[in-house]
Amino acid sequence: MQPVAVYVHIPFCPTKCGYCDFNSYAMEGEIMERTTRAILQDLETSPAKGRPAKTIFFGGGTPTHIPKEQLTSILKKVMEVHPPIEGAEITSEANPGTIDAEKFAAMREAGFNRLSLGAQSFKPEDLIRLGRIHQANEIERAVKLAREAGFTRINLDLMFALPGQTRKAWQHNLEAALALQPEHLSLYCLTLEPNTPFYKQQLRGELIQPDEEEQRAMYEACEELLGRHGLLPYEISNYAKPGEECQHNLCYWRGEEYAGYGPGAVGALNIEGQRLRTTRIKHPVHYSAALETGASPNCEEEILGAKELNAERIMLGIRLNETLNLEGLKLDQKGLDTILARGWATQDAGGLQLTKEGRHFCSEVAVALLP
Ligand code: SF4
Fold first, then answer.
1. CA 112, CA 151: separation in Å to the nearest integer?
2. 61 Cβ inside 6 Å of ligand 1
3. Distance between CA 251 and CA 254 in Å, rounded?
C-alpha cells in the first residue's frame, strides 16, 4: 500500500492567544480524555487504515497541553493503524510553557523524533502582548530539555511584524533563535484574521503593525543572516539545514495525499481514482459525540475536480524554492506574462520558479496564474 502523510489535530491550549484563528480551545480536564478516546476511535475506523505512514505530525492547538499518557496513547494508535516507514519523521508541536523533562522523555520513548516549538519571540513584552503563556527564558530551557531527551531535529516558530516591533528587535529575535542552533526555523508574518481580538484592536486603532516597507525589510533580513548559519530557504516561510526540511509539510506543498484525524483535521486521500477532501467536525464536544455514536466525524466532504486540483498545485507548489513543473497545469497566459515581465518568476524548460523579488508577492503570483 502507498505510504501517506498522517496529521493529528489536538485542539487544546492553556489560553487563547490574541491573534489566533486556529481551531483551538482553552479547555482542559475531562474533555481532553473524551477527545483522546474519540481520536483513537477515529483512527481505528479510518478508511486509510493499514496504509503506512510516511510522516506523522501532531499539531494544534498545543499537543503538549494534554497529559503525556494521552499524547503517547494517540501516537501508539497512529503507529498501529499506519505503521511508519523506515526513518519516518514523527513531529509534535510544543509550547515551551507546557513541557518538562518527563514529558519530553515520554514523547521520545513513544517515537516522536522531531519537535516544533512555538517560540514566537524572545522579548518578554512581545510574548505578553501576543497572549502567549510562556516566558522568554523558557524557550532556551525547552530546547535544552529536548536535546537532553534526545531530540536531534528541532524547529522554532518565530513571528515578525508584531505590534511595535522594530527591525532591530526582529534581528535580536533571529539571533537569539540561532544561538540555540535549531535545525529548522519557520518565520511567519503576523496576519490579523477577522474574528480575533487583534483584528478588532486594529480596527479601533489600538494595534499598529510595522508598515509594508518595514515588513519587507524584516523578511529580507532573514535570508542573509540565516544563510550564514547554514539555514537555507526552501519555502516562503521556512528555512532548514540541508536534509532537515520538514518532510510532512513538503507532502502538503507537493500536493501529496494526507490523512487527518482529530477535531477540525483536514485530509485529502485518493479514493477510487478521485481525490476526496474531508474536514472533521471542529468542536471537540461535537466531534467526540459523533464518534461515540458511530456517526460520521466529518463536517465536510468534497471530491476535488480537475479545476480545484490544478488550483491547489499552483497555490501550494509556487511557495517552494523548487521549480514548479508546468506539465499538465492550466495557467492564465496573460497572468504568467505579467509575472515574468515584472521579474517575479523565471521560466525554463523545467518549469517556473519565483525570484527573490517574487517571493514577496507569492500570493499575488499564485492568483495571477490561476486560469
Ligand atoms: S498556542 Fe497556538 S493554537 Fe494555541 S491559542 Fe496560541 S496561537 Fe492558537
1. 8
2. yes
3. 5
Report the topology of domain 4-252.
TIM Barrel (3.20.20)
Q: Where in the chain is the domain with CATH 3.20.20.70?
A: 4-252
Task: Please name the amino acid found at residue 211.
Answer: D
Q: Give 280 Cα–ligand 1 centroid separation in angstroms.
A: 19
Q: Which atom of ligand 1 is nearest to the CA of 24?
A: 3
What pLDDT digit, counting tens, does each position of 266-303 carry? 999 999 999 999 999 999 999 999 999 999 999 999 99
The set of cell numbers assigned to 156 is 522554532
pLDDT in the model for residue 223: 87
pLDDT in tens, 89-126: 999 999 999 999 999 999 999 999 999 999 999 999 99
Alpha carbon distance 140, 160 (integer Å):
19
Mean pLDDT computed over 350-369: 94
pLDDT tens figures, 318-337? 999 999 999 999 999 999 99
Q: Which of 15, 17, 117 to mutate to test the pocket of ligand 1 (most atoms within 8 A of CB)?
A: 17
Cut 0.90: pTM above it = yes
